[in-house]
Design goal:
Blueprint: H1 2-44, H2 48-60, H3 69-79, H4 89-99, H5 109-121, H6 124-132, H7 137-150, H8 153-164, H9 170-182, H10 189-192, H11 198-208, H12 217-226, H13 229-241, H14 245-252, H15 261-274, H16 277-280, H17 295-309, H18 318-341, H19 347-355, H20 365-377, H21 381-393, H22 417-426, H23 432-440, H24 447-456, H25 463-473, H26 478-494, H27 499-511, H28 515-528, H29 533-545, H30 552-570, H31 576-593, H32 597-610, H33 615-625, H34 632-645, H35 650-662
Helix pairs in contact: 1-2, 1-3, 2-3, 2-18, 5-6, 5-7, 6-7, 7-8, 7-9, 9-11, 12-14, 13-14, 14-15, 15-17, 17-20, 18-19, 19-20, 20-21, 22-23, 24-25, 25-26, 25-27, 26-27, 27-28, 28-30, 29-30, 30-31, 30-32, 31-32, 32-33, 33-34, 34-35
Length: about 675
């Protein structure tokens, strides 16, 4: 009986254990499904970071692995592009999945975005390439538009076949029919069977041929309310590409509608061109958005503010942004917006903040334009102009005026100029404009002062590099000159048109005996600022006097080349002969004074190559050649010619008689 009881007890324990295990597995499966369902709901609502948190729990729990892995990977692929991570963090995420034997594919929606951008830019082949990889109806429509533009019969047939199998909206059906009919192509029967309201059909014709099929503003406004986001995206893209910004604004100007990011950006760009004040007053940022307000809209709004009052005091809901785009993105954006709100005093920090978030700030023309405005505010003109040019190349739609910076009144300094200028800087050493004014008036910067300036400047600024470079080249030891060269080269990479940085590099190269590199740097300085040509000539002469550039003909060639480069840069080549004769005369006079016969000869030879009837050069060169027996005949001919050109000058006749006596 005891034995029977023990066996019964054992079976009971086993049953309880099995039931407990089954209950645990059930709860575990429910928990995994809860994480996935929650992630899907969060991502669908645009809360990508919160969705990734749920997916992280799923992937980090061994019991969750199984049939739902593909679903989890698809969700992660969709969410990840919207959640910027610190450097290499994405790689760590990929490696973690690889350890689980999983591989993350890119989200197909990227191809839709890229295809639409290529279509708007007229890159038909690229648009068709991305459209083939986008399985959505919009992707098929992009493919058809590209195929029609290319007049590629095979591609048109392929796109039409895709369209006939897809659930299209009435507008998309009308657009497809019109695209095909305009080319005399057969419309698939599946599309022909679909009913399209007459007003939608007229609107589709207007979108494709706005000048031929006009639609009233009232009709456009009504249609804008009823059209789906995808339809609005296609219509405004095509109308915007044709220059119909007014129609774009009419369709999208719906303050009570939560528009997606792409449409908000398109509307903001249209405002920038035609009604920029509607961006600068901050009202645009209060519009409803399907998700967070796009960063580019913040940039446009801040740029408009900076061009008027040199500040931008806008904020967003940081907690919501964290849920949508993660802690990393939210903190970066808050750092930037706080710096922008400080006005000119925060410009340097704002520039550094922008440079620290390249993965969040697209290569947008408005990004470059805002940087130009910020750099203007701290008197970094060279870099500001560089970003202006980049913004224009990237398609910035209007001129970028100088930002609304307040100009400082320079101090009226007497005899104690250096102390006076330093006092002016010390009044507010964090104001980079004070440094700029003082240095422009002649303040000599030490290494310690240059370091102070560096601490309050953006990393990419040139003023502190230029100041530090000049402080370093005043010292002659190799280590300091090497540091000066490093500073100048890095600065020249950031601001190729900063002439002072090229001068610092030239002086440093010459110190190390690299004449070729020094000449190149001097040439770049002249190209950047032709007014500095006399400085470059003196530097070349100084190198010759120190023996670094010890060939007279090489020095003369440098002077001639730098002068030609200056005049080409000024587009004043017609003045070349006159200016060259003046400068070579100065060089010859220096040679005569220092009894440098070889340099004097080279200078006069160069003068005669420009103007063979210059009697002063003829006489002086003849006199120098008289010391060389092998050149007496040539010297006599020159002296004779000088006398013929200026018979009244007794010195020329004396030179001729001396040479005649030596023959």
């Amino acid at each position: 009986m005891k034995r029977l009881f023990v066996v019964a007890l054992a079976f009971g324990v086993l049953a309880v254990g099995t039931g407990g295990l089954m209950l645990h597995k059930h709860r575990s499966a429910a928990r995994c499904a809860h994480w996935l369902d929650g992630a899907q709901a969060q991502i669908a609502g645009g809360f990508f970071a919160s969705g990734i948190e749920g997916l992280t729990l799923y992937f980090s729990t061994t019991s969750c692995r199984g049939v739902a892995d593909n679903r989890a990977l698809e969700l992660l692929a969709r969410a990840r592009p919207h959640v910027p991570l610190p450097e290499k963090a994405h790689l760590g995420q990929t490696l973690m999945l690889a350890k689980l034997g999983l591989r993350l594919e890119s989200d197909g929606r990227d191809h839709q975005t890229l295809g639409a951008a290529a279509l708007a830019a007229g890159n038909w082949r690229e648009a068709a390439h991305h459209a083939r990889r986008d399985a959505s109806p919009r992707g098929a429509l992009i493919g058809l538009a590209a195929a029609v533009a290319l007049n590629d019969e095979d591609l048109i047939e392929e796109s039409a076949a895709r369209i006939s199998k897809m659930p299209f909206t009435a507008f998309q059906i009308a657009l497809s029919r019109d695209l095909l009919s305009a080319r005399g192509l057969a419309v698939p029967s599946a599309l022909m069977k679909q009913k399209v309201p007459a007003d939608i059909a007229r609107f589709a014709a207007f979108v494709l041929r706005p000048s031929e099929e006009p639609v009233s503003t009232g009709t456009l406004a009504d249609l804008g309310v009823t059209l789906a986001d995808d339809d609005l995206a296609v219509a405004t893209m095509l109308l915007g590409a044709k220059g119909y910004r007014g129609a774009v604004v009419t369709l999208l100007d719906q303050p009570s509608r939560a528009l997606p990011a792409g449409l908000l950006i398109r509307l903001a760009r249209a405002y920038w061109l035609d009604a920029p004040d509607l961006l600068g007053n901050g009202k645009f940022l209060t519009r409803k958005a399907s998700g967070a307000m796009p960063p580019e809209v913040f940039l446009m709004t801040c740029l408009q503010e900076w061009q008027t009052v040199a500040t931008c005091a806008y904020r967003f809901d940081e907690l919501e942004y964290k849920k949508r785009h993660g802690i990393h993105a939210a903190s970066r954006w808050m750092t930037l917006l706080k710096a922008l709100a400080r006005g000119v005093g925060g410009a340097a920090d704002a520039i550094d903040a922008m440079n620290a978030m390249p993965d969040m700030l697209e290569a947008s023309p408005f990004t470059f334009a805002l940087k130009a405005a910020l750099l203007d505010a701290i008197a970094e003109e060279t870099l500001a102009n560089r970003y202006r040019a980049t913004a224009r190349k990237a398609g910035f739609p209007t001129d970028i005026p100088n930002s609304g910076q307040t100009l400082l009144v320079p101090p009226a300094c007497g005899r104690e100029e250096q102390a006076c200028l330093q006092t002016f800087v010390d009044a507010d050493p964090a104001d980079i404009r004070r440094w700029q004014v003082a240095i422009g008036l002649g303040l000599t910067i030490s290494k310690a002062q240059a370091t102070r300036l560096m601490d309050v400047s953006p990393d990419e600024a040139t003023l502190w590099r230029r100041s530090l470079g000049w402080a370093l080249v005043r010292e002659s030891d190799d280590a300091t000159r090497a540091q000066a060269l490093s500073v100048a080269r890095e600065g020249s990479r950031l601001a190729p048109s900063d002439s002072h940085l090229h001068l610092i590099a030239a002086i440093s190269y010459e110190h190390f005996g690299d004449t070729g590199a020094a000449v190149v740097a001097l040439s770049k300085a002249v190209q950047a600022d032709p007014d500095l040509t006399p400085v470059t000539l003196r530097l070349a002469l100084g190198a010759y006097k120190r023996g670094t550039n010890n060939t007279p003909s090489a020095l003369v060639h440098q002077w001639v080349s730098l002068t030609h480069l200056e005049l080409r840069t000024r587009r004043a080549e017609k003045q070349a002969d006159k200016l060259l004769m003046e400068r070579l005369s100065l060089l010859a006079a220096f040679a005569e004074e220092t009894k440098d016969t070889a340099l004097a000869r080279a200078s006069y030879e160069a003068m005669l190559a420009i103007r063979e009837d210059h009697h002063i050069a003829l006489n002086n060169l003849a006199y120098l050649l008289m010391a060389d027996p092998s050149e007496l005949v040539r010297a006599y001919a020159m002296a004779e010619k000088a006398v013929a050109l200026a018979p009244g000058i007794a010195e020329y006749k004396a030179t001729l008689n001396d040479i005649k006596a030596a023959l």
